[in-house]
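ok posting inputs for the heme C job
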Amino acid sequence: MSHDMSNVPSSSEPEMYGLMAEFHDVNTLCAAASKVREAGYRHWDCHTPFPVHGLDDHMGIKFTKLPWIVLFMGLLGLGSAILMQWWMNAYDYPYDISGKPVWSIPANVPVMFELTVLFSAFTAFFAMWIMNGLPRWYNPLLRKERFARATDDRFFISIEAKDGLYNEADTTAFLQGLGADHIESVEEPAERTKLPSNLKGKLIVAACLLFVPPAMVYNSYGKTTTKTRVHLVPDMDMQPRFRAQGASAFFADGRMSRQPVEGTVAQGELNLDTAWHQGKDGADYVQKIPSVVDEAMLDRGRQRFGIYCAPCHGHDGRGQGTVHKRASLLTDQGHAQWVPPTDLSAKRILEQPAGMIYETIAQGRNNMPAYAVQMPVADRWAVVAYTQALGLAQATAGPSEEELNTMTPAQRGEILFKDKTCNACHSIDGSVILGPPLNGRFGKDASLADGTTVLFDDAYVIESIKDPNAKMATGGLPGMVMAPLPTSDEEIADLIEYMKTLK
Ligand code: HEC
Ligand code: HEC
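and the output
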């Protein structure tokens, strides 16, 4: 064992990185590592030419926390994806796409997967760098000639000066006691914090270039351009082809679209059953759907209607679909012209022959586009059946929720008065049906069967409806009692407002 102490500098010399002790066999190294750990050093390391099994145990290296960090960030990515998609699609900008639900987990899985992987992978990569103290441009140990043998046949322990227990003389003595062949002190090189100068310029250029794409995005944000876009990868954008309605120098009539050769019919297009294929019998529309309408057909119709019609006409067919709502908004802002979709429960549509609705779907009408391409013949008839059923149901259903919301309470009360069948027993013209007439009563006294009177006010009406037997009124047919009717507090409030208007 040779102890070369001549290299240990005095404290006035350059800043110290630490001490480096050289060992010539693995067993001594492992035993020494255990001792260094037991002594309580924290900033130290072993350097070996090959992986030494068990050395991490001697050094007391714990299993990395990285997987937990990655797990946490992965879950964070998953959560962000769910929250982001819910916020965008179901909250901030709910948009009816072919009747699909605005929020459904399966549709969101791809992005959930992507963000989970993205967050975890970035975390694994960058957290590993940070935890290992990287990037680091140099290691002062590499400046020591003897240290080169760490890649060949020698084992090293280095203890850094920044360790709390480090003291040059004591630590040197300590390492000697562990059986080191050679101990050398390691200085910090003066230029240690500097980047290699040739790298600096390149990094500055790269950093500047990073700003170019955001600047370009910012520059074109919200602008339109008439220039054709740059085709870096032309794909099939530029291929010569025939466009519908395009001009052609090749044909004598100058048109690209060709008519079938006269007297020929394309395969599968010999549709002799005009009632089924065109909705027409001769020149007239067929009145009824030319097939049996069963539940399966209506169900298919409902489904297709939800996909192709509801975006404009709304799921209730009243013409209030999301496309309509959005388009109306843009029209109000002066961006566009928009013809509102027809209310399919309108009398005019209910009276239309089935064949005419079929034709509207197949060929479009006025501003409504054709849906022949998207919907085969049987589907069109299914939608006709559903459209008629829906229109009829809506026409008899009374006002829609939206209409109710825009009405005054008294107007709603008038509708409720009929809906709740109050009008079956109470007249509003002073005549007696079963119960007392209810016009001109509000704010006046009502006489009861026991001879007393009570003020006809909110509380009395509420009680009369909720607990009809509490006070028996006179004025109706004798002996008649009112049965309690399920009526909500809001509905009663509307009915009261209505009764106040009855003179
Ligand atoms: C892109 C929006 C849009 C979609 C989708 C749409 N419509 Fe229409 N529809 C309209 C508009 C707009 C009108 C009014 C056209 C006009 O009178 O200019 C209309 C009118 C109609 C009419 C009345 C035609 C008449 O006789 O005046 C029917 C019936 C109808 N649509 C049925 C359907 C059915 C069934 C579907 C689904 C296959 C459908 N629409 C899909 C926009 C749409
Ligand atoms: C089956 C017939 C029947 C129906 C339906 C009915 N009522 Fe009555 N109602 C009566 C009779 C009979 C009386 C008088 C006996 C009593 O007070 O129970 C009465 C009493 C009343 C009174 C007290 C009238 C007074 O002169 O003091 C009010 C208010 C009232 N009904 C409101 C309503 C409202 C609102 C509805 C609808 C939600 C309704 N009723 C539905 C039969 C009916």
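notes: The pocket of heme C (ligand 2) is lined by residues 420-422, 424-426, 434-436, 446, 461, 464-465, 468, 472-473, 475-476, 480-483, 485, 487, 495 (CB under 6 Å). The CA atoms of residues 223 and 276 lie 49 Å apart.
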